[in-house]
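#lab-general

N.A. 3:47 PM
ok so I finally got the sequence cleaned up, no stray characters, all 174 residues accounted for. can someone with queue access submit it? mine expired

B.Y. 3:52 PM
send it over

N.A. 3:53 PM
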Amino acid sequence: MPNIISKDSDTAEDATGSGYISCSYPKLAKRYASLSKFLMKALSAEMNSDLSKPLFYGDETSGYCLYRIFKIKDNSARGGERKYCLLYISDDEKKVLPNWDIIDTYQSTFISNVQHKVTKANVAQSVNGDNVLNGETYLRRQLNSPKSLMTLTNDKMIFVEFHSWACSLLADTE
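B.Y. 4:20 PM
back already:
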């Protein structure tokens, strides 16, 4: 998927105006390393028994992170669900902590939206008969491959929505 670029509406006609870029991977090696560290820690080490509450951790070297883990139902996944994580990362701890409530509200809204879309897509598959269980499905030979949010939500514009959501969050926490 190509990069998604948006400009601040106030400075859209000014070439030097602020804007946002969403891409698959960070261009800076340091940012990529800290992002990998945050994701590994969030999805494997630092867990919260109540997924409706965010967790915070970080340091001066890697930055600071407020994140929420959420699960999506997927019959072809191990355990019947897939785990995802939304991260809000900043180099400045004072930018994250005072905005805790705003970040949590945005994350909750996005998670609810994604889970609703997945439920709707699963119902549509059931109605169309796409969820027929057979020996291959039961043994997980065919369907044990990774799936994107685009596939699970049946929404080709999910990443554009995510970009728009992230831009609004960043604008509200500046």
